[in-house]
Design a protein that fits this description.
The complex is a heterodimer.
Chain A: H1 2-28, E1 52-54, H2 71-75, E2 81-87, E3 101-102, E4 125-133, H3 142-146, E5 152-154, E6 169-171, H4 172-192
Antiparallel strand pairs in A: 1-5, 2-3, 2-4, 4-6
Chain B: H1 9-13, H2 17-20, E1 33-37, E2 49-55, E3 58-65, H3 73-79, H4 86-92, H5 97-112, H6 118-146, H7 151-171, E4 180-181, E5 184-185, H8 191-216, H9 219-225, H10 233-238, H11 244-248, H12 255-258, H13 279-302, E6 323-331, E7 334-342, E8 348-354, H14 356-367, H15 373-382, H16 387-391
Antiparallel strand pairs in B: 1-2, 2-3, 4-5, 6-7, 7-8
Helix pairs in contact in B: 4-5, 5-6, 6-7, 6-13, 6-15, 7-8, 8-13
Classes of the chains: A alpha+beta, B alpha+beta.
The complex binds iron/sulfur cluster (SF4) (2 copies).
One iron/sulfur cluster binds next to helix 3 of chain A.
Chain lengths: 193, 392
C-alpha cells in the first residue's frame, strides 16, 4: 500500500515538473522583454526624475526664474545646493554681510543653516552661480517642491555617468544658459533655412 | 572557548570578537565545526552574518551577527529637520519603501495635527499596496533562488518591472521612493497611472495561477518547504514576530485590520493565515497577500475621490508641539513602527524605528536548531529579511 502511494506521489510530482517545463517552453517562444541598451532605449523616460535643473523665465531664456531666496538650499537634506550672488549694482560682494554667499556646505550642523535671506524686494540681487553637488543628492524632490517660483525641475538625465566626483558637480546656471543658447541656435538655424 | 583566553595569539588569529566569544552549544558532543554563514553569502541577502555551530550537517547553534550595514538612521533623525528626514525612509527597507514613508509621515502628522485630504489617503493606499506586491514578488523570486530554482526570479522581475513603471509615473523613481509628504503626497496620480494600475490588477490575477502550477505545486519546492522551520504560534508571539511570519503560524494579526489606520477600514479584504507555521505556510500567506492587495487596489481605484493630493496648509517648516507619538503601519515584512519625541523644535528630539525584520530574524537562532544546514537556508529565506532594515 505504502509503495503504491509512493508511486502515485512520484508520478504526480513528475507531472507537476512537466507542467512547469511546459510553462518555460511556452515562455521561451514569446517575444523578449529585455531591452538591450544601448542598441535600444526604454520608452518611459518622460516620467523619470533625474537631478534638478533650473527653469528659465519665459521672456528671458538666459535667466532663471530663481529669486535667490535660499529655501531650496536650506531644505535639502544633503546640502547639495549652494549659490553665489551679488547685490544688484554692486560688483564686489560687499554689504549686507548676510547676503553674500549662502554657506550651506557640509558643516557639522548637518544641513540646516537657519539662514533666511531678506525678500528680494528688500535687497535686489543677482545670481552668479547655482551649484548642485549631485554626488550627495537623494532625488527626494524637496527642493523642487519648496521653490516658491517654480524655478527648479527634474532633468531627464537618466544615462548620466562619470568617473570622478567632479563629473557630478554642476553649475546649474551655466547649464541653463548653455541649454538656452543651444536651443536658440537650432531655432535660428531652422529660421535661416 | 571562554572570553578570558581570547587574547592568546592563536585566538587572535582565529577570528574576530564574535567567533572568539562564541560559546559552544552545551549539546555538543565531540568535534563540532564553527562556521560563518555570511556576511557575504548568496542566501543572506545583503550583509547578514550567522555564526553556526555544526555537528556534521546538523546545526547545533546559530547566532546572527548584525551591524554590517548600520547607517545610524535613528541618530540621523535627530540632526535633520522633519522634512529632511523623508529620504531616509526610502532607504530603511528599500523593498517596501512606501510603507516606511507612510509610517513616518503619519507619525509626524499625528503629532502635529495635520489633516490629510481624502484623495491623498486613497493614493497612499494604492501606491503602498502596489509596493507591497512588488516586495512580495521580489521575495518570491529571491527565495526560490535560494532554494536553487533560477527561472522564477525572471518571471517575478518581469512582473515587478510593471509595478515599477507604474510607480515611476508618480514618484519619479524606481526603488527608493520618497513620495509621501506631510499632509499628502508629492504628486497627483495621472490618468495614465490609473489605467496602467487597472490593467496591472487584471494582468497579475491571470499571472498568479501560472505561479501556482509553475512553482507552488512543484514537488521539489514542496520538499524544501513543507514541515521545514515549523514556527509555533507561541514562539512567534514570544519573539514579537509580525507580518507573514506571524500570520503563517496562524495568528490573524494585521495592523491594517487590528488598528485600522488611514482608510483601510473602508476596504473589504481578508487576512490570509497559515496552519502549521512551516516555510510553506509563510510562502502561501505571501502569495495570498498579493491577491488581497490586488483586491484593495481595485476597490480604491473604483472609489477614488477627487480633491487635493496635498494639504495646502502645511507649513514649509513643520514644528510639531512638545510631546511624543507612536504610529504603526503594516509593511510587507510586518509591523513598522515609528516613535518620535518632539521638544517643540524643528528637529525630532528622539526618533526610534521599529523594524519588523529585527524581531523576525531573531527567531532564526531557535528555529534553526537541529535542522540541517540546507534547511536553515530555506528557513532564513522564508523569513523575508531585508538587512538594511534590521541594522537601520
Ligand atoms: S532632490 Fe533632494 S537631495 Fe537632491 S538637491 Fe533637491 S533637496 Fe537636495
Ligand atoms: S527655492 Fe527656488 S527661488 Fe529660492 S533659491 Fe531655490 S531655486 Fe531660487
Amino acid at each position: 500500500m505504502k509503495i503504491m502511494t509512493n508511486y502515485s506521489n512520484a508520478i504526480k510530482g513528475l507531472l507537476g515538473l512537466l507542467k512547469g517545463l511546459k510553462i518555460t517552453g511556452v515562455e521561451f517562444f514569446k517575444p523578449q522583454l529585455t531591452i538591450h541598451y544601448p542598441r535600444k532605449e526604454v520608452t518611459n523616460l518622460a516620467t523619470y526624475r533625474g537631478h534638478i535643473d533650473l527653469v528659465a523665465k519665459e521672456d528671458a531664456p538666459l535667466e532663471p526664474k530663481c529669486i535667490i531666496c535660499g529655501k531650496c538650499a536650506e531644505v535639502c537634506p544633503s546640502a547639495c545646493i549652494s549659490m553665489e550672488m551679488h547685490v544688484k549694482g554692486e560688483q564686489s560682494f560687499a554689504s549686507p554681510a548676510e547676503c553674500r554667499t549662502i554657506t550651506v556646505g557640509h558643516g557639522i550642523e548637518i544641513p540646516f543653516s537657519g539662514l533666511r535671506l531678506p525678500p528680494a524686494e528688500v535687497i535686489e540681487r543677482e545670481l552668479d552661480s547655482f551649484n548642485l553637488d549631485y554626488n550627495y543628492c537623494s532625488l527626494c524632490g524637496l527642493c523642487v517642491q519648496i521653490c516658491p517660483v517654480g524655478s527648479l525641475t527634474f532633468s531627464k538625465d537618466s544615462y548620466l555617468a562619470g568617473t570622478a566626483r567632479k563629473n557630478f558637480e554642476f553649475d546649474l546656471l551655466q547649464r541653463l544658459r548653455e541649454r538656452s543658447r543651444r536651443s536658440s541656435q537650432t531655432t535660428t538655424a531652422q529660421e535661416k533655412r | 572557548m571562554t572570553p578570558s583566553d581570547n587574547t592568546t595569539m592563536q585566538n587572535i588569529l582565529s577570528g574576530d570578537y564574535y567567533t572568539n566569544n562564541f560559546t559552544l552549544s552545551p549539546a555538543a558532543e565531540g568535534d563540532t565545526l564553527v562556521l560563518n554563514l555570511g556576511p557575504q553569502h548568496p542566501s543572506t541577502h545583503g550583509v547578514l552574518r550567522v555564526v553556526v555551530e555544526l555537528d556534521g550537517e546538523y546545526i547545533l547553534k546559530a547566532e546572527p551577527v548584525l551591524g554590517y550595514i548600520h547607517r545610524m538612521h535613528e541618530k540621523m533623525g535627530e540632526v535633520k529637520t522633519y522634512a529632511q528626514y523623508l529620504p531616509n525612509m526610502g532607504r530603511v527597507d528599500y523593498l517596501h519603501a512606501l510603507a516606511w514613508n507612510w509610517a513616518y509621515v503619519a507619525a509626524v502628522e499625528k503629532l502635529a495635527g495635520v489633516a490629510v485630504p481624502l484623495r491623498a489617503e486613497y493614493i497612499r493606499v494604492i501606491t503602498c499596496e502596489l509596493n507591497r506586491i512588488s516586495s512580495h514578488l521580489l521575495w518570491w523570486g529571491a527565495y526560490l533562488l535560494d532554494l536553487g530554482a533560477f527561472t522564477p526570479i525572471l518571471y517575478a522581475f518581469a512582473d515587478r518591472e510593471k509595478i515599477m513603471d507604474i510607480l515611476q509615473i508618480v514618484t519619479g523613481s524606481r526603488l527608493t521612493y520618497c513620495y509621501y509628504r506631510f499632509g499628502g503626497v508629492s504628486a497627483d496620480i495621472t490618468p495614465d497611472f490609473i489605467d496602467m494600475t487597472r490593467e496591472f490588477v487584471g494582468y497579475m490575477r491571470d499571472r498568479l495561477p501560472m505561479y501556482k502550477t509553475f512553482v507552488t505545486e512543484n514537488m521539489i519546492l514542496r520538499g524544501r518547504c513543507v514541515d521545514i522551520g515549523v514556527l509555533s504560534k507561541e514562539m512567534a508571539v514570544r519573539y514579537g514576530a509580525t507580518g507573514p511570519v506571524l500570520r503563517g503560524s496562524g495568528v490573524a494579526h494585521d495592523t491594517r485590520k487590528i488598528e485600522p489606520y488611514s482608510i483601510y477600514d473602508r476596504f473589504d479584504f481578508d487576512i490570509p493565515v497559515g496552519k502549521n507555521g512551516d516555510a510553506m505556510d509563510r510562502y502561501d500567506v505571501r502569495i495570498a497577500e498579493i491577491q488581497e492587495s490586488l483586491r484593495i487596489i481595485e476597490q480604491a481605484l473604483a472609489t477614488l475621490p477627487a480633491g487635493d493630493y496635498l494639504n495646502p496648509d502645511v507649513p514649509e517648516r513643520i514644528t510639531p508641539p512638545k510631546g511624543e507619538v507612536y504610529f504603526a503601519v503594516e509593511g510587507a515584512r510586518g509591523k513598522i513602527g515609528i516613535y518620535i519625541v518632539s521638544d517643540g523644535g524643528i528637529k525630532p528630539y528622539r526618533l526610534k524605528l521599529r523594524a519588523p525584520g529585527f524581531s523576525n530574524l531573531h527567531l532564526f537562532a531557535e528555529l534553526s536548531q537541529g535542522t540541517i544546514l540546507a534547511d536553515a537556508v530555506s528557513i532564513l529565506g522564508s523569513l523575508d529579511l531585508v538587512i538594511p532594515e534590521i541594522d537601520r
